């Protein structure tokens, strides 16, 4: 699938817009529209619920984006948060040296009289067998040797732009957790192992942002720092190693729980030479994005590096008192670090389907109901009939108390269904003549409505009075649609 299909759907249906579009846009900055903000909030809510509310060993935090500049010195970001950058001597474009072979490249092939080809990422030319050595974008310029470029956004605090006022927009949320380790430990009376979770904005001056919301300058992270006593042993193995594996499994399962297909996920172990110097082991969860397998989440065993560094630099003890062994220890930390925006992209890509229904193309997002921006759409079959409209509006008002739901009468029913399919709304409720009856003909309505399920397009007839119970079962209690189908009569489609 082509990423452009998703980009275009996102714009057309109010998920994601180019930032500052009326001014020509700003590269790699995106705004979440009415449906996008719901989807992203739902992703974050699902993550928070599963990792904070449903775990007795986790608490939450929301630290400030601006931090004391010494944080970034101690954490190593000032000196080491860099990517290797190369420049094209001809077209002046800049690239991340370590990602050069992950984009398609332009080649003027000597074996075909210098014809221009665009060659897939990492592959040699089919005609002359050459591999890329020059600029991948213009195909002509030589590249400079790599030099290190710091990715942190610098800014000034206060009215004077002087060195003493320099601070940084955080490039990760994690440091806010480390510097609050003791505050959280003491105030919440926690015992190891425990974790602190945080969701928030991070900023990186990426050399080559792109691929829609995959790599941007401003993004949201969902990070966990899980602290473990390094002296503990579980089943004969160091506790930090066991917890690392448990978190890898848990995070791998999490994406699948919300609908991502197993075959579109894989684990990639970092090689020894790729590991940060303090990391004992790091594994990335990768997703098969349209542009290729790429990182969705990194899960690292950072040992006691961060707490040790901040303890040393601040002069405050960031140790934990091990009651059993009567010693102070520096906990080890396991860090599952995910991107909210990258997750949104993966969920969208994985949910996207094109089907043929009665000779027509049907586009649908098979989003998990917890993630779907809208849960229920209430649709009148005929908008000229006042009782139908009034009943539909009243149903929507009632359902909106509990679930994000909309009323729509701006097209014929077939088109209304297609619109809801395209944004992933799991259920539509339709009010028709049978529901309200016909006063002129002295026919009473049956006060029943049709519920249509998005994926199967099956429809059942349900009394209005039972709607809330049915949706509570479907949307909160995890009852399968098949159980509802078994209970109520099918409706004519
Ligand atoms: P990459 O190698 O892709 O630059 P990274 O290894 O630097 O990523 P981490 O520092 O491990 O990324 O950040 C954790 C997570 O934050 C990533 O897995 C990703 O989901 C998200 N993330 C990092 N950088 C960006 C970005 N520029 N735009 C969007 N999400 C990002």
Commentary on this structure:
There is one protein chain. With 493 residues, the protein is α+β, with helices and mostly antiparallel strands. It is built from 14 helices and 29 strands. It has a seven-stranded mixed β-sheet with strand order 3-11-12-20-17-16-15, sandwiched between helices. It starts with a helix and ends in a 6-residue tail after the last helix. Bound molecules: adenosine-5'-triphosphate.
Enumerate how many helices there are, as a single number: 14
Mean pLDDT: 96
Distance between the termini: 31 Å
Radius of gyration: 27 Å
What portion of residues belong to β-strands? 25-35%
What gross morphology would you assign? globular
Stretches with pLDDT under 50, minimum 5 residues: none
Question: What are its keywords?
Answer:
493 residues; alpha+beta; 7-stranded mixed sheet; 5-stranded mixed sheet; 14 helices; 29 strands; 29% strand; binds adenosine-5'-triphosphate
């Amino acid at each position: 699938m082509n990423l452009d299909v998703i980009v275009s759907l996102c714009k057309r249906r109010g998920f994601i817009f180019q930032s500052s579009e009326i001014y020509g846009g700003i590269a790699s900055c995106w705004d979440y529209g009415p449906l996008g903000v719901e989807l992203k909030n739902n992703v974050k809510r699902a993550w928070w619920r599963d990792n904070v509310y449903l775990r007795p060993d986790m608490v939450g935090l929301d630290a400030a984006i601006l931090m004391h500049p010494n944080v970034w010195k101690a954490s190593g970001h000032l000196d080491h948060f860099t990517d290797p950058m190369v420049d094209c001597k001809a077209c002046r474009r800049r690239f991340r040296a370590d990602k050069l072979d992950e984009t398609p490249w332009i080649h003027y092939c000597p074996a075909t009289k210098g014809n221009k080809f665009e060659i897939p990422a990492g592959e040699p030319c089919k005609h002359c067998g050459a591999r890329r050595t020059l600029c991948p974008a213009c195909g002509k310029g030589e590249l400079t040797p790599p030099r290190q470029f710091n990715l942190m956004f610098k800014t000034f605090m206060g009215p004077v732009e002087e060195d003493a006022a320099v601070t940084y927009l955080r490039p990760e949320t994690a440091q806010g957790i480390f510097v609050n380790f003791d505050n959280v430990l003491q105030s919440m009376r926690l015992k190891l192992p425990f974790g602190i979770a945080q969701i928030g904005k991070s900023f990186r001056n990426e050399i080559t942002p792109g691929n829609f919301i995959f790599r941007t300058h401003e993004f949201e992270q969902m990070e966990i720092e899980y602290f473990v006593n390094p002296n503990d042993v579980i089943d004969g193995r160091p506790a930090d190693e066991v917890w690392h594996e448990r978190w890898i499994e848990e995070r791998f399962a999490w994406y699948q729980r919300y609908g991502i297909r197993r075959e579109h996920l894989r684990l990639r172990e970092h090689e020894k030479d790729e590991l940060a110097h303090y990391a004992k082991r790091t594994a990335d969860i990768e997703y098969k994005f349209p542009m290729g397998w790429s990182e969705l989440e990194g899960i690292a065993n950072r040992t006691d590096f961060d707490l040790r560094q901040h303890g040393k630099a601040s002069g405050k003890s960031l140790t934990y008192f091990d009651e059993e062994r009567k010693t102070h220890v520096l906990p080890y930390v396991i860090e599952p670090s995910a991107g909210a925006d990258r997750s949104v992209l993966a969920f969208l890509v994985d949910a996207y389907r094109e089907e043929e229904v009665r000779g027509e193309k049907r586009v649908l997002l098979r989003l998990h109901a917890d993630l779907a921006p809208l849960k229920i759409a209430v649709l009148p079959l005929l908008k000229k009939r006042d009782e139908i409209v009034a009943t539909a509006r009243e149903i929507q008002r009632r359902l909106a108390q509990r679930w994000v739901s909309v009323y729509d009468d701006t097209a014929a029913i077939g088109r209304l269904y297609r619109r809801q399919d395209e944004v992933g709304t799991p259920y539509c409720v339709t009010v028709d003549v049978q529901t309200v009856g016909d006063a002129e003909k002295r026919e009473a309505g049956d006060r029943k409505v049709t519920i249509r399920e998005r994926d199967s397009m099956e429809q059942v007839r349900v009394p209005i009075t039972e709607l809330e119970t049915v949706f509570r079962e479907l949307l909160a209690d995890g009852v399968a649609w098949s159980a509802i189908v078994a209970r109520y009569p099918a409706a004519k489609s």
